[in-house]
Amino acid sequence: MNRRLIYVFLCITLLSFFSCSKEYDDEITNLQSEVDKDAMYSMSAGKYAGIWLINDIKVEDVSSGVCLEPSGVKNCDMLSFGQSGFPSESVVKQLFPDTDISELSIELVSGGYIVLQRMGYSDNMIYYSSGEDYVQHQLQITDKSDHRFVLVLVYAPSETTVSLGLTSHTLSIGLVIKQIEIIDEIGNKTVRDLDSKMNLTFIGKINN
Predict the structure, then answer these.
(1) In this structure, are strands 46-54 and 57-58 parallel, antiparallel, or unpaired?
(2) Between the CA of residue 204 and those of 60, 78, 161, 162, 165, what are the distances in Å?
(3) What residues contact 186, with CB distance under 8 A and at least 6 apart?
């Protein structure tokens, strides 16, 4: 009887050992996978050149200043646009086809960048969502008659999509404009919901 008890005890001990070993191995494998993904990401962060589409139609704006970089916060990165990295003129022409623009500049109100949250991995891809509740671009516009106004593009954060190809070094961005704000020279603001949402898409390849 004692031998049988000893045998059962040994079996339970061995099973526990192998179970713990498997959990440990799984943790090491997952950790290594995360380290590998971060190493690949470090080679994919930087400046991207590509094309912009508005409602699936390619625009002619030069797009060479889209940057993806670490934010310093775990699982969060930053997306920023240079003056030539966003199709400002094409967006304004779509919204105000009768406005003759003489000068146009862009400013991203939320600190100069969009915060992105890493939502998951799939093979060699990272998928992001917006890490902010309110994302907007502010465009400073001067027309040919020297009238100045500010156009604020308000995005739908829940519909913001960004994906990064870690081995192909490609970046895909989807932004949806749901509302605009117009601020005149004396500070009066008009808010306007768009009749149909404007979809902005960027597809680019790393250009460090």
Answers:
(1) antiparallel
(2) 14, 16, 14, 12, 10
(3) none
C-beta separation of 92 from 151 below 8 A: yes
- Provide DSSP, 8-58: HHHHHHHHHHHHHHHHHHHHHHHHHHHHHHHHHHHHH-EEEEEEEEETTEE
Nearest to 180 by CA among 147, 142, 130, 137: 137
Question: Strands (DSSP E) along 96-144, which ranges?
Answer: 101-108, 114-122, 125-130, 136-143
How far, in Å, CA of 69 to CA of 86, rounded? 17
Phi and psi at 48, nearest 5°, equal -120, 140
Give per-residue pLDDT as tens, 95-143.
888 777 766 665 545 445 788 888 888 878 899 988 776 677 788 888 7
Asked if residue 19 has pLDDT above 50, the reply is yes
Given CA atoms 207, 156, 153, 60 in this order, what sign does their dihedral have? positive
> Which ranges of 45-136 does DSSP label H, i.e. alpha helix?
88-95
Contact 55, 198 (CB under 8 A): yes
Q: How far is the C-alpha of 203 from the C-alpha of 201, rounded, in Å?
A: 7
Per-residue pLDDT tens digits for 159-188: 888 999 988 889 999 999 989 999 988 889
